[in-house]
Write a structure and sequence with these properties.
Helix 10 crosses helix 11 and helix 11 packs across helix 12. Helix 4 links the parallel strand 2 and strand 3. The chain is built from 12 helices and 10 strands. It is an alpha/beta fold and about 375 residues long. It folds into 2 domains: about 30 residues; about 325 residues, Alpha-Beta Barrel (TIM Barrel).
Length: about 375
């Protein structure tokens, strides 16, 4: 009788355990293998490949709504965004709050602050007043950028002016290739020490052109010697640790006479990725209302698509955020119908997020 009671009790316990296990499986199903991206995930992934601008020194509600819709990977800052250091620091903090709320990842906060060239904040003034760079002042000013919250510097320039009439000559802080290469190397290293990513520009070098791409599309051919010298300047900047490269709005006849570098697979993928072995992020120069687009008879969304297919990781539209949203929507619709473009976007998204996560783990 006792044995029968024990056996019966054991059977009940076993039944309860089996029932509980089945219920647990119902509540915690095995994860399914990931499928193809949904429309929403594709939209989010495309957003990371966009760099955008905002209109003023504060984040207005309309701009915030557009940022929350596009979910860009980066924001580029201009004069219009700067009133004071305190104001800019607050703006950047607010932008990063929106970034983390919408994507879980920070924005690339980008700015053009070129030693000897273009600037937005008035930094690096007179750092070449006595010929050689004033590295103490340069280091101090990079520290200012760090404290403001800037994490991507759209510099240094690697455009040595092989043509002495080049439009870009006045922005180059060196009189020979060796001096430019040495300056860029040291500048990249200093930026990295402050946790700021360096951007070499404008690949593969704008120093042969007289025409300014803000006014017309430069066309010409770098000789073999000058092209190799220009590539070497970029290579040494990459070896120093530059994380980004920006391409130039110009046609390099000896490499690709049919496309500006912005749209050229031969230049972005062939020269930069394959020949130089660059594994970082490749970004366009500003695509907003640039003459090279009208010269190619392209819409802005088509320019973005072609730039991505050429090998760019991110596309930059700095003006009119509402217009950027329309471009974004056109590219998104195109990607839903174009498997090749969709694959490019997914690969770029993976590269960007991997970069951001790796950077976040650095001390």
């Amino acid at each position: 009788m006792k044995k029968a009671w024990i056996a019966g009790t054991a059977a009940v316990i076993l039944a309860l355990l089996v029932y509980g296990a089945l219920r647990l499986r119902e509540k915690s199903p095995s994860p399914l293998p990931p499928g193809p991206p949904t429309a929403d995930s594709l939209k989010d992934h495309l957003g990371q490949t966009f760099i955008v601008g905002i209109p003023g020194p504060v984040l207005d509600s309309t701009s915030e709504q557009l940022l929350r819709y596009i979910k860009p990977g980066g924001v580029v800052l201009y004069y219009r965004n700067f009133v004071s250091s305190e104001q800019l620091q607050q703006l950047i903090a607010r932008l990063q709050s929106v970034a983390r709320e919408t994507t879980g990842h920070p924005y690339f906060m980008m700015i053009d602050e070129e030693p000897g060239g273009a600037g937005r904040l008035g930094l690096f003034r007179n750092v070449f007043a006595y010929g050689d760079p004033n590295w103490t002042q340069i280091d101090h000013d990079i520290g200012v950028m760090e404290r403001l919250g800037i994490n991507v510097e759209l510099a240094p320039l690697a455009d040595f002016p092989f043509n002495h009439q080049s439009f870009i000559r006045k922005r180059i802080p060196a009189h020979n290739v060796e001096a430019l290469t040495d300056f860029n190397r040291q500048f990249v290293i200093l930026l990295k020490r402050h946790g700021i990513c360096a951007t070499l520009k404008h690949f593969p070098g704008m120093g042969a052109f007289v025409d300014d791409p803000h006014k017309t599309l430069p066309r010409g051919a770098l000789g073999d010697h000058d092209l190799e010298a220009s590539l070497k300047i970029f290579q040494q900047g990459i070896d120093a640790g530059a994380d980004l490269v920006m391409t130039g709005h110009a046609v390099y006849g000896g490499v690709d006479p049919d496309h500006p570098a912005t749209l050229s697979n031969k230049i972005v993928t062939g020269l930069l990725r394959r020949k130089l072995g660059f594994q970082g992020l490749v970004i366009t120069d500003d695509l907003s209302d640039m003459p090279f687009i009208t010269g190619q008879d392209l819409s802005l969304d088509e320019a973005a698509v072609q730039a991505m297919k050429a090998g760019h990781t991110m596309v930059l539209f700095s003006h009119k955020l509402a217009k950027t949203r329309r471009i974004f929507d056109h590219v998104l619709e195109r990607a839903r119908q174009d498997e090749a473009l969709k694959s490019v976007i997914e690969a770029n998204y993976g590269r960007i997020i991997t970069f951001k996560e790796h950077r976040a783990t650095k001390p």
